[in-house]
Amino acid sequence: MADQAHIRNFSIIAHIDHGKSTLADRILELTKTVEARGMRAQLLDSMELERERGITIKAQAVRVLFDSEDGQQYQLHLIDTPGHVDFTYEVSRSLAACEGALLVVDASQGVEAQTLANTYLAIEGGLELIPCLNKIDLPGAEPERVADEIAELLGEPADGVRRISAKTGDGVIEVLEELVRKVPPPQGDPDGPPRAVIFDSEFDQYRGVIAYIRVVDGTFTKGEAIRAMATGTQAEIDDIGFFTPNETPAKSLSAGEVGYVITGVKDVTQLRVGDTLTTKVRGAEEALPGYRDVQPMVYCGLFPIESDQFPELRDALEKLTLNDAALQWEPETSDALGFGFRCGFLGLLHMDIVRERLEREYDLDLMATMPSVGFEVTMSDGTELEVHNPSDFPDPTKVKEIREPFVKASVLAPKEYVGTIMELCQEKRGEHAGMHYLSADRVQLEYLLPLAEIVLDFFDQLKSRTKGYASLDYELVGLRPGQRAAGGVRRSADPGAGHGGAAPPPPGGGGAGGGEPDEVLPHPRGARPPAAAAGRAHRGRPSGRARQFGRRDRALAEPRRDLTADGADARHRQRSPSDWPGVRWAPAIPRAKTARTCVPRRHGSLRVGRGASTTCTRREGALLLLSGGTYSSLTWFPQPRPVQPRAPTSRRRSRTFPTLRRFA
């Protein structure tokens, strides 16, 4: 057991890809916590998803022994944190277990949106910040400019910013020396009643719940009986220890230390993140503050493709909630998709990660509905409703007011993109809230935006229009009245299919997003085509077939030829587009305003260009759509039950398919 005066707890915080995990690797290597043969890149990113995507999803804690130049050995508890805005809650819980933080900034990119957000989190928590300028070995590094940005952000001289290279290890030992000097030791009573806060947890099917704890007061010993103060759960400590980064058993954990506790509890609801642990004998009377409740921003329905997997999905969600405290869910029933769950997430990346973890770790096949946000609705009779699913939206004629969630978005970008960003935010119903320059070349724009616009394509549009230079951070600011309708795609007049997302009413009503479910669900025989609904208005009923060309299109087209006739050219009898190596197909009318071309080859549909799609109706068919005279790579969507084609008549030849010409 280390002396409390020689313990330091700290986190590494930074924007995405600024080098948090690489710096953690160098600290583990230089302090010889991990042997050279056991080292690999991003050692603390233990999840397969983290290594595939190159991002940190879960915060990881590890104990490091550091021999300082003052002759003392210090016990450092390092917590590597995520950098994406969706995992800010994970960062806040990690910072609550620390007294200091290393603020890492890329010397070539400078201060970014999450740099500011994490800095404010650390300052609010009263942490001692040590700024570090990383990647100084890059050819494009601008250490002087970025150091000035950091100094202006923290209100400290630029000379106090440490220059390091996490890749080569330059300056890392000096950072640890400064950390030992500046970060205060943990405060707590080592002889008082034991208290520890659970800051994270996971589930092991053999050992039960593994709780990650930060001991605040007293000492916890193996074999001792403990009690969870919020739930009242009582259990005995089967195993206790710390991370190096693997689980290392110990006899006890004392005040100021970070480690894990295994009690054999198999019920995931009995030990929750934020709960306080104490001993059954001579236990504490007052619980620790815990953590604030997190509110989901994005909602999505998850349904098992096989209906008999519903119990397995419920069990998987319960276990995953233990490891991901921000995930919320409740049962949901859809007439089209059956039994499933309505889940709340912190963002689109969080939603994608949860779905992929459910499929990989619990061997489930899932279908996700379109993401949406929650609304508060005031009815004409004064009743207040919360709507998270477009199919649950009440009759618009009885609605008095709709309130939608708004966020305060902070966009950092080079100054030459200010006009582009302002134009995008105005298109997304944004309200300008402020602008100031971080330096002569970088500017921070603040806008109030509807959350529903953020979860659609705002981030993609922002990156596209600024050539990838802009960064985004946002926080929920509350609900505001909004002029929106719950728009949803209804298949066969069924409002409960669960495909729809909350969308603004388009001009003329409806029609927005009416083509999406065609790519997921095949048409039943004889079904009515889908219609987009905004309120009670139904607009735009695409039939799923390419439209017939008008007079102007036919005038521009070359003489037509029936490509579907028996005995046609051999190249048209290829099985699928993949059988046409080195050959592209283009319409004969590239100047037409709207050109949609179908090359029947196989059942299914192809998506091209702007995402339009349709269904091939030939016995052997492949589909090519061109919108606005443009085309791109094809995406194949096989459909097991295609609609049977109508027999061609001898009096009239099909005008749906113009002549295509082949060119290399």
TrEMBL record:
Keyword check for Electron transport: no
GO biological process, one term: positive regulation of translation
PROSITE patterns referenced in this protein's UniProt entry, alphabetically: G_TR_1, G_TR_2
Bilayer topology term: Peripheral membrane protein
Domain annotation Tr-type G: ranges: 5-187
Enzyme class at the top of the EC tree: hydrolase
Protein location: Cell membrane
UniProt GO cellular component terms: plasma membrane
A Pfam family per the record: GTP_EFTU
Binding site for GTP: D17, H18, G19, K20, S21, T22, N134, K135, I136, D137
Enzyme Commission number(s) of this protein: 3.6.5.n1
Principal cellular location given in the protein's record: membrane
Gene Ontology MF, one: translation elongation factor activity
Residue ranges, annotated region (Disordered): 483-585, 638-664
Biased composition (Basic and acidic residues): 550-571
CDD domains: EF4_II, EF4_III, LepA, lepA_C
Key words, A-Z: Cell membrane, Elongation factor, GTP-binding, Hydrolase, Membrane, Nucleotide-binding, Protein biosynthesis
Catalytic activity: GTP + H2O = GDP + phosphate + H(+)
Membrane spanning residue stretches: none
Function in brief: Required for accurate and efficient protein synthesis under certain stress conditions. May act as a fidelity factor of the translation reaction, by catalyzing a one-codon backward translocation of tRNAs on improperly translocated ribosomes. Back-translocation proceeds from a post-translocation (POST) complex to a pre-translocation (PRE) complex, thus giving elongation factor G a second chance to translocate the tRNAs correctly. Binds to ribosomes in a GTP-dependent manner.
NCBIfam families: lepA, small_GTP
Protein family per UniProt: Belongs to the TRAFAC class translation factor GTPase superfamily. Classic translation factor GTPase family. LepA subfamily.
Protein name from the UniProt record: Elongation factor 4
Organism: uncultured Sphingomonas sp
Lineage, highest ranks first: Bacteria, Pseudomonadati, Pseudomonadota, Alphaproteobacteria, Sphingomonadales
